[in-house]
Write a structure and sequence with these properties.
alpha+beta, Muramoyl-pentapeptide Carboxypeptidase, domain 2, four-stranded antiparallel beta sheet, about 15% strand, globular
């Protein structure tokens, strides 16, 4: 029987990592159960400092515009319903439902009790060493609906 060979690269396909969220949630729950809430925050902060180092540099160089591009790209890729409002000193992102939580719930994955820290702590860590601060202004643990606010620090 003849066979055909298909040649392709990862970049030829849309990149989605939705099952990553379930694994991350399980890891967060493990850390929380065995080492406490602070261990979860410490892990996420350290991860953010390393993985998002290029984004953190871009924030220092280009300000909130760099964050705007990052979140628009991420939420568009994840097919989230979201709104972004940017001014010189503030970026507000409203997300109708967290795509990670939506995915996990639709597949029966448990959602970690501290899963919201993947937004709150990560956003705060993104802003460390920059002229900006982050706050999770609103959050619904059932859907992950959120309002994330980034703003210029007081001088």
């Amino acid at each position: 029987m003849a066979h055909k060979t298909m040649s392709c690269k990862a970049s030829d396909h849309e990149y989605l990592h939705k099952d990553f969220h379930g694994a991350l949630s399980a890891g967060i729950e493990y850390l929380h159960t065995h080492y406490g809430e602070q261990a979860v925050r410490d892990y996420l902060r350290e991860f953010t400092r390393k993985y998002y180092a290029p984004l953190r540099r871009a924030i220092r160089q280009r300000g909130l515009a760099a964050l705007k591009v990052h979140f628009e790209t991420m939420y568009t890729r994840e097919r989230a319903r979201f709104r972004v409002r940017l001014t010189r000193d503030e970026l507000v992102i409203s997300v109708a439902a967290c795509p990670a939580i939506t995915h996990m719930k639709s597949h029966g994955y448990p959602v970690a009790r501290l899963f919201h820290e993947t937004t709150r702590t990560v956003n705060e860590a993104l802003c460390e060493g920059t002229p900006f601060k982050a706050e999770l202004a609103e959050y619904d643990p059932e859907t992950g609906r959120s309002v994330q606010r980034f703003f210029r620090r007081s001088r």
